[in-house]
Description:
single chain, 208 residues, eight-stranded mixed sheet, 8 strands, 22% helix
Amino acid sequence: MKITLTQFVSLDGVSQGPGSADEDTSDGFTRGGWFVPFMDAAFVRTASEWLDHADGLLFGRRTYEAFARDWPRITEPDPFTVRMNSLPKYVVSSTLEEGSWDPTTLLGGDPVAAVGRLRDRPGREVQIHGSARLGGFLVASGLVDTLRLVVAPTVVGEGRRLFTHPSGSAGFRLVERDHTPSGLVLLEYASTGAAPLADYEGLDSLTQ
């Protein structure tokens, strides 16, 4: 299965608390809900199509606990409810003792080895939604096959940013791009391994 990371980010790279004021208030964050004003029907359709590819969901502990609290209370006709609640969930955690959102499998031990074994299973995509710390770690470990970024036209000004921790380099190739009437930019990338480096030697040296 491919490991696919989907992240909502602002123009200044913030990924913390996109969905509501109380989604993630860690470290004193007070500007949650910055993504919601830009959600529109076009984005919901695309996000639903992405979720159609999932054979499982992968989380870190904090996002898992928040989703396990909230998604069972979201009723239809929300287009994501049935799939989010019924898909297999996998949680990378050394502290969580049991899952409360069935069906859940805890992945203990070495996270790279555990996710690697999950990636080796047959299937389509295991999708990471939220869980930016886990996502960034897996990108640095070379385990993310597809990166989907949804960029909101806003500067949050504070909050935890995507890919802020020390990590290895990672290269990606743009495979699809789109935008919505509300101004969201949807970018899909495929992993290409380590990020390439080069010196600028004039226009003749540029890749055509």
